Amino acid sequence: MKNLQTFEQFVNESSIDGLDRDKQEMVRGIAEILKQVTDKPNRSAIAKDQIEKFKKEGIDFKYEDFLNMCGLKVDEFEGSLGPTTMPLSTMLLATQPGSPTIAF
Q1: Is residue 91 part of a domain?
Q2: What's the structural domain count of the chain?
Q3: Is 54 domain-assigned?
Q4: In terms of residue numbers, what domain contains 28?
Q5: Comparing C-alpha atoms, which of 22, 23, 26, 32 is closest to residue 68?
């Protein structure tokens, strides 16, 4: 029972915690470097490119956590993060009859 997490710890855990140690350090390091880019549109563009690299390399985690680490907000981000980061409420809304179509 000593190794069980509390619900609060589980909810607050970053999705990169599921990656191996080297990948966690890499993701955090890239985010720290991107935070030094003062121009937000430029930082957003670089973050988008990096997320695409993560996807191609099979480094799967909740990419909105990466944006938060970079000092960006998901609603300010121009680009698709893919269905893994779409809020459940949006996915459920998309399945309701008469709701607008959402491309995944």
Answers
A1: no
A2: 1
A3: yes
A4: 12-79
A5: 32
User: Is 93 a domain residue?
Assistant: no
Tokens of 35: 């935070």
Q: Summarize pLDDT for 21-37 with one digit per residue, the tens.
A: 999 999 999 999 999 99
Question: CB–CB of 77/48 below 8 Å?
Answer: yes
Buried b (16+ CB within 10 A) or exposed e, 12-48: eebbbeebeeebeebbeebbeebeebeeeeebbebbb
pTM of this prediction? 0.62
Give the span between the Cα atoms of 90 and 42, in whole angstroms: 28
Crossing angle (nearest 10°) for helices 21-35 and 40-56: 160
CA distance 57 to 41: 24
Q: How far apart are CA 56 and CA 36, in angstroms?
A: 25
